[in-house]
Amino acid sequence: MAYWLMKSEPDELSIKGLETLGEARWDGVRNYQARNFLRAMAVGDQFFFYHSSCPEPGIAGIGTIVEAAYPDPTALEPDNHYFDAKASPEKNPWSAINVAHVETFPCVLGLGYLKQQAALAELPLVQKGSRLSVMPVTAEQWAAVLALR
DNA sequence: GCCAACGTTGGC
DNA sequence: GCCAACGTTGGC
């Protein structure tokens, strides 16, 4: 089993929203590096749910992958925010996965707090200029974050 | 709203 | 293949 971190704007989907839904499609990833990580995910993998572009950016909980990567339908919907004119049913470069809620942390682990953790120094999330929205997390980093809950 | 940093586009 | 211009991300 592998560990990941994925960013979501809480206005679109928050950890509470996922908790309410139980399961959700994770779509709209439009970056090749992030997409490649999506495709590397296996059912049963777990991920930290990070809230971005919001008043309190940080890790808000844990989710798990319940369906591995498949073509992202939002790329084919003209009215969708994530529509991609270059995608077609035959050739859709983008991927989506299905996820389920696992745990909502009592408090959000803020970005500033995460940056103070020596054990997380190698995590792309805390590195200057990093905009990657889907990234791998090592077992050591995973344990270090769990200890902060 | 600002702006640093990054990714993508497109002319050459 | 280079690189300038542009668009996007995302914290503050």
Automatic annotation (TrEMBL):
Gene3D superfamilies: ph1033 like domains
Transmembrane residue ranges: none
Pfam families to which the protein is assigned, alphabetical: EVE
Superkingdom of the source species: Bacteria
Protein name (record): EVE domain-containing protein
Organism: Pseudomonas fluorescens
